[in-house]
Fold this sequence. Notes:
Two copies of one chain form a homodimer.
Chain A: H1 5-19, H2 27-34, H3 38-50, E1 54-57, E2 63-66, H4 75-83, H5 107-122, H6 127-130, H7 134-141
Helix pairs in contact in A: 1-3, 1-4, 2-3, 4-5
Amino acid sequence: xxxxxxTDYALRVLMYTATKNEEKVSIKEIAETFxxxxxxxxxxxxxxxxxxxxxxxxxxxxGIVLAKSPTDINIGSVIRIMENDFYLLECxxxxxxxxxITPACHLRHVIGEAMNAFFQVLDQYTLAxxxxxxxxxxxxxxx
Amino acid sequence: xxxxxxTDYALRVLMYTATKNEEKVSIKEIAETFxxxxxxxxxxxxxxxxxxxxxxxxxxxxGIVLAKSPTDINIGSVIRIMENDFYLLECxxxxxxxxxITPACHLRHVIGEAMNAFFQVLDQYTLAxxxxxxxxxxxxxxx
Lengths: 143, 143
C-alpha cells in the first residue's frame, strides 16, 4: 500500500512554496532541496498549476507561488487529485474487472468504507496545519 | 492508491474456501473460477498457509481448508500480512528516506493517522461478515 511518488512530491512542492510566503520559487531549487530530478518536479508543478493550487509565471522574474491561502489547500483534495487511481481491488475498476463474484461480494463495500475513513482524516487537514512550524521546516530546507 | 494483486487474490482464496465449508478445495479450481493463473494462487496459498489461515494437505485426497473459523479470520489482519509494505510516503521507509524535512514534518503523522483509520474499519470485519450471503456467492463461483 503506497501513494504515488508524484503525490509525495506534490505535497513537498506545496510545503516548500508555502514556507517562502509570497516569494517566487523555482523548479530547480525545489529539485535541489529534495534531491529529486527537475523533470519530476516539473510534471508535478504542471499538475498543481492545472488544479489551481499554484501559479507559475515565466521569464527572468518568473517562478511559482501558491494560488490560494494554505488554509484553503485541503490535504485530502490534493491527494485525491494526484492519486487519480483508487482501484484498491480489481472490482473497483469497472472497465477491467473480471471477478465473477462481484455482484454479491461485500468486500468492495468494506474496502470502500475503509478508504472513506482514510480520506475523512485527510480532509480535516490543510496545508496551513503542515506549516505550524514553518521556521523549523525552512531551516531544514535551507541546509 | 492500490492494494497488491496478491492481497486481492488472498481474499478471494479465503472466500472461495469458506463457501465450501469443510470440503477440500484445489488451487486449480480456485484459479479456474477467478481466471487467475495457478502460479499466482499457489503463491498466495503458500502465504495464507504460513500465516495459519488455511491448512493444505498433499496427495490424492489433499486440498485446502480453512484452518480456523471464518469469525476468527480478521480482514484487517489478512490485509496487513499480505501487503507487508506500508511506505505511503518516502519517509515511512527509514532505510531509504532522503527527505530533508523529515525531522520537522507533520505530514507523516497526518498520513499515519489516515492509515490507522483505514485499518480501524477493516479490523471490524471478519471473513464471516463476507459470507453472510454464502449461497449467492457459491452460485456465482459455480457458474
